[in-house]
Amino acid sequence: MYDLIFRNARIADGLGNPLVDGDLAVVDGKVAAIGTISDPAIEELDAQGLVLAPGAVDLHTHYDAQLTWDQTASPAGAVGVTTVVIGNCGFGIAPAPPDKRATILANLAEVEGMALSSLEAGVEWGFETFGEYLGFLRQKGVYPNVAVLASHTVMRTAVMGDAGSERLATPCELDAMLVLFREAMDAGAIGLGSSTNENHRGAGGIPIASRLANDDEFRAFAKVLSNYDHGVFMMTCGEHHGIPFMEEMSQLSGKASFYAPLFHYAHQPQRAAGIMRAAEVARTRGVPVYAQGSCQPLSLSFTLDHAYILKAMSPWPATEDRDELRCILSDPSFRAAFRETLAKPDRQHIFKGRWDWVPVATTVLPKNAGLAGRTIADIAAERRADPLDVFLDLGLEEDFGTKYTLFMLNMDEDGVAELLVNDGTLISLSDAGAHNAMLCDAGYAMYLLGHWVRNRGLFDLPTAIRKVTSDPADAYGIMDRGRLTPGAWADMILFDPEVIRITNMEQHFDLPAGGERLLRRAPGLHGTRVNGVRVFDGENYLSVQAPGHVLTEFSASRPQLGMPVSR
């Protein structure tokens, strides 16, 4: 007898093959049979013609801290995600020597836009080493499956303290970091995460530690990675590293490298396409280099005292003290200098003064209620005022309570479509768990199925499902996931393809210490199962024994992505 049977489903295998009408049976958390099944099950469900598909595999999340207080990794299951990779960009919370924990949290709060008060109130330090962190997650229990990257910046901080963000490592310090990396790989890390992106700054606005590493330090890590059968290298790149460097890392390590982020830039329309093509050329030479891209417009919501995306732009002040900010932002000389910054061509800064891409999200004063939803450009034109003045004056008038949304990247859909159809672009890059009060892109897979499949017709449904399930799983060596085939783990979502979509962001204050975050819902998603266990019923998370696995064993193979596989 089977544990579970879904009957009358349209079954997507996650490999790109056509959907099959029939039944799917589960035993011991794995897919046992597909087709017309006459045998009974303990639990039988009528899918009523809805699509039963693998859950999404989200390669780029930041749930590292959240998972210590939230088993569900909300909103993962509520938006169809069943497997997550954490430790991205080199930001994690292990290893965590007690005397370095405050620094680790302060840097994480700044670079990933998290409330420090929530981190300090929420993180449970039931571990010190990387292996102990994995054991802690396993003991606590997780709803999604979790794979963990060893975090470059955290290892640097553990060895060098604050000096890790100030200078190169000495040979002895590098040796100590490599010992920590070996310990992490031996414990079950999926690979190494790092960043050299110029916008990545830690507490006090100083560069995060991995930005102080030279190329020889990266090469040393790659050589350690070469000693293991499994492993990946992911890096959030800035202006100084691109596909040639990622290709070198793959050649040294013998492992796949993943470039992030791949977004379409309106002011550099050929930039992302050039990165995509360079990675494609590397793969034609047999070097497994991929890019992590997004299928959604990238936006951030913020107030003037937490203007994360503007802090990297001189002369924007690093302080969040409101009295200091009021003085600086009111100063005409500051405004003149910031206008000059916006007018200068600068590849590393995302915001270019497109005030038509900056709507007012929420206001505080009743007299300003009518401004919500309108762009700064529109308001400035109506008032015959300078947009920067309108932007700053409104926020100051409302005592920093005005929330703005900044649409930055992926605004040209034709340019985005060119990136998405390339099978070297792994659709992910949700940043889920980070920038909680600024964005919520965790529902990217639901957006893909609704917008790009149903509304735009860029993909057929089986192809789109493959792009967010088996492709990312196979590229990272995550075994028996991202597919519904006999013997694979039963990570599944049930959804209505005619309804599936993602809602606008909704404000919540449910993080530790009352911290704010933005969430989205996925109408049309009827349920999410991890290893056969239902964790989300379409409306709510369920109180179940956490069914997710902390993943520590991975495949060494690197299959060719994008080719449907016959069952």
TrEMBL record:
Identify the InterPro entries for this entry: Amidohydro_3, D-aminoacylase_insert_dom_sf, Metal-dep_hydrolase_composite, Metal_Hydrolase, Metallo-dep_Hydrolases_sf
Any Pfam family matching the protein: Amidohydro_3
The terms under GO molecular function for this entry are: hydrolase activity, acting on carbon-nitrogen (but not peptide) bonds, in cyclic amides; hydrolase activity, acting on carbon-nitrogen (but not peptide) bonds, in linear amides
One GO cellular component from the entry?
cytosol
List, for all copies, the residue spans of the domain called Amidohydrolase: 43-508
PANTHER family, per database record: COLLAPSIN RESPONSE MEDIATOR PROTEIN, HYDRANTOINASE/DIHYDROPYRIMIDINASE FAMILY MEMBER
Q: What is this protein called?
A: Amidohydrolase 3 domain-containing protein
